[in-house]
Write a structure and sequence with these properties.
Elements lengths: L1 H28 L24 H19 L5 H27 L7 H21 L15 E3 L3 E6 L2 H22 L5 H22 L17 H22 L8 H18 L5 H5 L1 H19 L11 H7 L4 H29 L2
Antiparallel strand pairs: 1-2
Length: 358
């Protein structure tokens, strides 16, 4: 528990202090965000705001994880390193996207096909590594990931062949990564929502650690998860890093996450869902991100089928509400409320699953 608390405090301090210096660094070099021309006109004044703030969030989470283990002299686990690995890898992909926008002086970064190929490669690598690491002791939670599709735990009748399991994990990572990326369009929206989701994962991992099969086989119900306490360290580091970054990212934002941050945070959510055996629960936990993604899919699909007609004034959904007259802070706070309700619902389902043996 001390390691978990230490990681949270360190990540919070690093982003609160470090982001200020990073903003100064970016401003001096003119590394600012370019705004799409077809977006809400109110966003044009944001042009030039420093971007790539996700670098600070990623650095804070990684440093907090390793420093907390160093300070408390606790063991670093494969599970924790793999989640941080997918965070860093997708963050680097997002950095390439952000850098292309800055260097080319335009709002478009990597080509969609190139970004997708990069995400698929990262997802496959993560899936393979997650299934090849054996347990250090015993047979419980022998691999960081499982071949079973999971909801509140592994679904006994839904075991996938190895190849399909890897493809399933790749799909989760790619989908979650893009979902957070689509949501990151208003000051503080994705950052605040991510704080809540990662905080929920920290609570889930702590509960699983207390009901762990490896140490509590006498319990009527236990969780067959590898390294749950260390997953809590990762989750709380990410939650605290996002929370600290929100100080600078709330309206009026002094810095944006950029694709560097949004792609990385979504992938880390998927990684935590896979390792905590709550893959389908991620739909409820991240309902806001699901809604935002569906709004884009509906808009694009209907536009093509109807030859130019639209369901929403603009997608993702947060822009639609801006264009119907909601102020940006109103949209953000109301979307945060949606996220908070969905996170609370997911935690209720998770606890209820343990109580009633679902």
């Amino acid at each position: 528990m001390i390691t978990i608390l230490g990681a949270g405090v360190l990540a919070l301090l690093i982003t609160l202090i470090g982001t200020k210096f990073f903003i100064v660094f970016l401003v001096h070099r003119g590394y600012g965000q370019f705004i799409r021309d077809d977006g809400p006109t109110s966003h044009r004044k944001k042009r030039g705001t420093p971007t790539m703030g996700g670098l600070v969030v990623i650095a804070a989470a990684v440093l907090a994880y390793f420093l907390s283990h160093l300070i408390t002299n606790t063991r670093i686990t494969v599970s924790g390193v793999l989640v941080l690995g997918v965070l860093v890898a997708t963050g680097f992909l997002g950095f390439l996207d952000d850098w292309r926008k800055i260097s080319k002086q335009r709002s478009l970064g990597l080509k969609p096909r190139g970004k997708l190929i990069g995400q698929l490669a990262i997802g496959v690598t993560f899936g393979v590594l997650s299934l090849i690491f054996p347990a250090a002791a015993g047979n419980v939670g022998s691999h960081p990931a499982s071949q079973y599709v999971s909801f509140l735990h592994d679904i006994d009748w839904l075991r996938l062949p190895v190849v399909l399991a890897i493809l399933w994990m790749t799909f989760l990572i790619t989908s979650a990564s893009n979902a957070v990326n689509l949501t990151d369009g208003l000051d503080g929206l994705a950052t605040g929502a991510s704080t809540m989701v990662f905080g929920a994962f920290a609570l889930i991992a702590i509960f699983e650690s207390n009901q762990w099969c490896l140490t509590g086989s006498h319990l009527p119900r236990c969780y067959d998860v590898r390294d749950p306490s260390d997953l809590a360290v990762v989750a709380i580091a990410l939650a605290a890093a996002c929370f600290g970054f929100l100080w600078w990212n709330a309206k009026p934002a002094k810095i944006f996450l950029g694709d560097t941050g949004s792609l990385a945070l979504g992938a880390a959510m998927a990684g935590l869902a896979i390792f905590t055996r709550t893959e389908l629960l991620l739909i409820v936990l991240g309902l806001l991100f699901v809604i935002e993604t569906l709004s884009v899919m509906i808009q694009v699909g209907y536009f093509k089928l109807s030859h130019g007609k639209r369901v929403f004034k603009m997608a993702p959904l947060h822009h639609h509400f801006e264009l119907v007259g909601w102020d940006e802070p109103t949209v953000v706070v109301r979307f945060w409320i949606i996220c908070g309700v969905s996170v609370a619902t997911a935690l209720g389902l998770f606890y209820g699953g343990w109580v009633w043996g679902w």
